[in-house]
Amino acid sequence: MVVALKEDTHAIDDVVVVAYGTAKKSSLTGAVSTVSGEDVAKLQVSNVSKALEGAVPGVQVAMSSGQPGSSATIRVRGIGSINSSSAPLYVVDGMPYDGSIAAINPSDIESMTVLKDAASTALYGSRAANGVIIITTKKGNREKTKVTFEGRVGVNSRGISEYDIMKDPGEYMVTYWQKLKNELGSGAAASESLYAELGYNPYDCNNTMIVDANGNLTTAPLKWTDDWEDEAFRTGMRQEYNVSLQGGNDRSSHFLSLGYLEDEGIIKKSDYERLSIRANGDYQVNDFIKVNGSVAYARGEMNQQAISSLANYVNTFMFTQSIAPIYPVYGYDEDGNRVYDENGKPVYDFGNGEFGTRAYASNQNVVASDDANRYRTLTDNLSTRFGVNIKFLKDFTFAVNGGYDLTNQAIDRFQTPSFGDAEQSGGRAYKYRTRYETYTINELLTYAKKFGKHDVDVMVGHENYNYTYNYLYNEKTNFFDPYVDEFSNSLIMGGMNSYTQEYKVESYMARANYNYDERYYVSASYRRDGSSRFAKDNRWGNFWSVGASWRISNEQFMKDVEWVDNLSLRASYGSVGNDDIYYPGSSSSNYYAYKTQYSVSNSDGAASLTKYYEGNPDLTWETSYNLNVGLSATMFKNILNVDFEYFHKRTEDMLYNMPQPMSSGISSLSMNALTMQNKGIEFTLGVNIPMPKDFYWNWTFTGTHYTNEVLDIPEDKREAGITHQAYYNIREGRSVYDFYYYKYAGVNENGKATWYVDSEDEDGNPILDTTTDYSSATKYYIGTALPDFQGGVQMEFGWKGIDFSIGLNYQIGGDVYDSMYAGFMHAGSGAGDNWHRDILNAWTPENKDSNIPVLDGDQNANVFSDRFLIDGSYLNLRNITLGYTFPKAWMRKLQIEKARVYVVADNVAIWSKRKGMDPRQYIEGQSAANYSTIRTISAGLSLTF
Amino acid sequence: MKINMKSIFGVLLLGAAMLTACSEDYLETKPTHVLDQESVNDVMQADPAQVQAYVTGALLNTYCGGDYWTSHDDFGIPALKLVTDLMCDDIAYTNDNHFFCYDYQMDNRLGNYRRTSAAWNQFYNIIDGCNTIVTMLKPAEGETVEDDQIATMLGSAYTMRAWAYYWLVNLWQHAYSVNPDAPGVPLKNEVEYRAERVPVKDIYAQMTSDLKLAYGYLEGKGYYGGSKGDVTEYSAAFIYANVLMMMSEHEEAAKYAEKAIAGGSLNGAQLMSGFNSLDMDEVIWGYVVNDETTGYYASLFSHIDSYFIGYGGQVGYRKMISSELYDQIKDTDIRKGWFGYNENYNLLGIVYEYEEYYGLTQYISNKFRDVYMTTMGSASPFTSAIIHQRIAEMYFVAAEAYYLAGNTSKAQQMLNAIMVTRDTTYNCTLSGQALYDEICLQKRIEMWEEGCRYFDVKRRGETIDRKKSTNHSASLTNFNAWTYESTDYRMIYRIPKNELDNNPSITEDNK
């Protein structure tokens, strides 16, 4: 199931990486998809998790943040858990990997394999409930030493534009005047109050004359025309260089690579730099002992802005759009001249009274704070693997493998003393020092033998996994020198904390594979896991799977069916577990969920003890039962390749923080409470169009459709359901991601917003009524965050040395609650808050057909309702590559085996329902002002010696 | 068969590896970012005095707790004191788009709003902490508590629990005098959990029982720990006096008010100090805030200091005194100095453009000034202490109680005792309704923005009339709350949505 088909793809029986080993693709009984290293390298991703976007069926990839180096959110076959982690398990070179994903250099990757069903994942038992992503790095080469150089340089720009917000101060002023007129009842009063409400007058006119009593804007010239977007955004540079060496002889092989990446973001102090080195080798000691090992180190330095939520005034993506266009970025004097400091630098305006008192975000200026604050994460990531294989008694192999991953992270945050939140504290710095450490050791005994047409392969093993996390945090304030953000330069201790988290798993496992004559395959696996997250009596879980495959094309009766190259039918069933429960209301793991926990804090010098978490000793594993049925076919001499899968994943005993009435003393109690299912289909269709000599042209289509349904919740909650994240409702027969909230009914005769409410007529019959009091409105199912269909299209074309490819991905259906847009559609309740230009069509006595409420300052006019749900369908032009490989004859003279030049563009364009809103970023259906996707256009050179 | 030595080695290695399957201890881990119950129990077993940490935890919860700092208008009981004041007539708040504006507009009371759930969660958090303490320390039936330390811990827990119920029952139901049988709030103590809306009178029964016990445990111990940060006999008496007032038990109320008064002394010279320290002689209970516990912008002084960097100051969302009340303060009264723009305090050079434009500068508050400002920057910003209780309130409670009990001379005596420290020319000889009105008026002035007005309005059944002032905001869109009864539906909250959703015993919500 190789996704991208190359012109030379004849090897349909590829070897793929599976749990604890490799297997021939044709022998698989489960659902496995692979992305080749070449396809990963083609994309300009600084974090390999982003390479899966649109590439693998059944895998949803949300590009939550465009910050260079940041990870994508990945969900395999639906969102499988609710209050526990839905993230897949990463396995790098055979061992579970908890290190930094950003530390893995994409050009070191040989392949990425996604394991989706139980037959494939059950051997990873614990933590495999949400799928497994296996990353295999490049290895040595036993034939010929090969040196490869890759370099590419390009530019980064904003991939998603602003919303269609007001950019013209006059437009804003007139609209705000209209709101005041509606509110105060007279145009004259509105003109009088306009300046007092907003605090700024960008026009060279009297403050009460900005808009006259008839609603006409002044003709006076503007005193400033600062554009927040222009000032805050920039074009970044991206450059990447990799050198690698693959070599070896008949007894050993080795691989060495060195990589450097510099990826500048589109706002100030936002970038990612990585230096990585990787070395691995294997050595055949004698006929029966073989050793292998690898060491990879990466230094990552990420600078970012503290973009976390819509309410955060240092969020550049929110601030620059939400601030009314009447406010300047810089300070201006009475006459409209820009004010400069003694060094000749323009002085920023903070709206704090110095130049005026801004109604929006006083004492904040995102252009200034992006520059002055610091949020740097320095990561040292070390990942090592070691293994010994001993063959004995002919058919047995005993292997011991160890993996040790270490991530040291130093996070330095600094808030300037010069202005903003930390001004009166004299500046504030936070420093976090964290260390994540994982070791995994397993011992595997394998027996493999062929008896005639019978092929048997049995494995038993044992594994220990140990994760330790050390945390140290300090905060100090009062900085003497405003530009040195070290504690040596600061006076007052603000806070300090440290702790260690530990998590351990012990496992026993067994697997058996059997095939008869490469026609009938069966497999079974079993794993028993003990997790330190659960109490002694509840910590062991048993996971298992069975699978079978029938390779129809190898049957005698298919011999004469020439057009079928390969045909196989597969089915599997089994279980996998999840123990990663979160603390209530958060997404941080609770490693001690069975214990009641107290936090100790300092209250004026005395120890204070408050309950932090109510433990539940009965807590145990969440288990998913997966059914998978698949069909693979290759036809017409490899012209057509089809993979089709049906899956049904049922998650039982879901780890859930069940809300409790607060009057009982606790707000929630963790329990194994719900049952949910995800079922659907996925496919890959490859077409190699027959072409004349020197040409190739192939297409790959992938697609996924799935549904989510809650099957069982506690009896006392059945009728009303369980409110989930405010706008969803967990109820039997519905999806967890169905929006359950108010339904907008347009405006009434006075232009006030109304919502639907269930009511009764005089005879007591139920009728649908409307209300202007949204709190008394009825909640309905108004949409779903889950898409109907998702997929990707990959096209590759070549002629002689020229190669050209296009990658697309798309989504059909699924709603997104557009929080940003809802905010922009306020009815004037936020003085100084910008509007979307759709507001120009708001209801007025002259414009009664509008369904946008009258601008009268009503805070509830734009509350959460289906009015702001928008279809999340999109088509994304993910990647375009055009390359030219120089003829070999020319290169030979230069001692070069292969040379290719290319240009490549990523995130080229997206078509979606509303300008400014990127549905790809919000997997759970609610938009926020996340860091926009970056468009990257580069030119590159690749040389092999 | 030839046996290969290497194979034997392999088999042995395998056997060894399999046997190294770790002991059960391997999977035993212990949290360190928090303490598990076992560790807490061990600490307390070794030193029972450490139970005090639970008491301190409950004390801390009065200041934060609940949904602590999830938003900058959420900082525990101090925030709710401001909120309830804003729901009445003495604070004019002219901004319609910032923190607390919907409280002022009587529109922050629905079950799905943060305000209602934050308040509810806060008080039930305190109650849960107090229940734990009582469970641990309560003497067995028929036994008494000999140890002073245990007695003070128990006294603290009972006091705080009663205080939490006092807030809950008043925020979610009209005053006791309106209908003692009205549905109140769920009741949880160390013995039982009544999840339904327990009648108001039952909540009062719990409070009076708790406060009697608390006072008994604390009586005679004075400031046993030497700190006004602890619950003492004075603070228990203080709350008890207010509860008794609600129940119209005036003689008892006067008695406990005077017991509370014994904890401090009046000092007119400290009235302009900024109300940011427990060192004020009038303060009997509060919470000391430091660099670690401050919420910075999410703190009381951020919202009420007119001269500092916070929301109420530099950011521009000022809470001013209503003109009606301001006009009734005599010029000879020190408290007149609590109001009116004073450039000596304007150390940051804030421009009061809005107030100047609309002629409102005389209503700007000087009463609360952050300790950073009053110490000229030697204290950290927003580390002002939080004053929970000040004996001035008890003088007025005593005066009102004596008046209502028919004792005019004692009422005059209490009133004059405090007022003479505010205004040296003061001497009240009024009687009858005029005396009562004077007591009520002076209490409004004295306790401005300290969280008293709401309870008094409810208790006395007053009608709020914001039209009496010229500076209540006329321009606010949805501001229909000009004149309303104390029993107006907007004076109480609706049950938080989360509670309604998960507590099937609650069948009835407020309007």
Describe the model.
The complex is a heterodimer of chains A (945) and B (511). In chain A, 51% of the residues are buried. Chain A has 945 residues and is mostly beta strands. Chain A has a 22-stranded antiparallel beta barrel. Chain A has a 5-stranded mixed beta sheet with strand order 3-8-9-6-7. The model of chain A is unreliable at 1-12 (pLDDT under 50). Chain A is built from 9 helices and 42 strands. By secondary structure, chain B is mainly α. Chain B has a domain at 289-384. Chain B is built from 19 helices and 9 strands. Chain B has helices at residues 5-19, 37-46, 52-63, 77-86, 101-104, 114-137, 148-172, 200-218, 233-246, 250-261, 300-304, 323-327, 353-357, 371-374, 391-404, 408-419, 432-446, 453-460, 497-502, and strands at 35-36, 91-93, 187-188, 193-194, 283-287, 319-321, 386-390, 463-465, 483-485. In chain B, the strands form 4 sheets. Chain B has a two-stranded antiparallel sheet with strand order 2-6. Chain B has a two-stranded antiparallel ribbon with strand order 3-4. In chain B, helix 3 (52-63) packs parallel to helix 7 (148-172), helix 8 runs antiparallel to helix 9 and helix 15 runs antiparallel to helix 16 (408-419). Chains A and B meet through strand 16, strand 18, strand 19, strand 23 and strand 24 of A and helix 1, strand 1, helix 2, helix 3 and helix 6 of B.
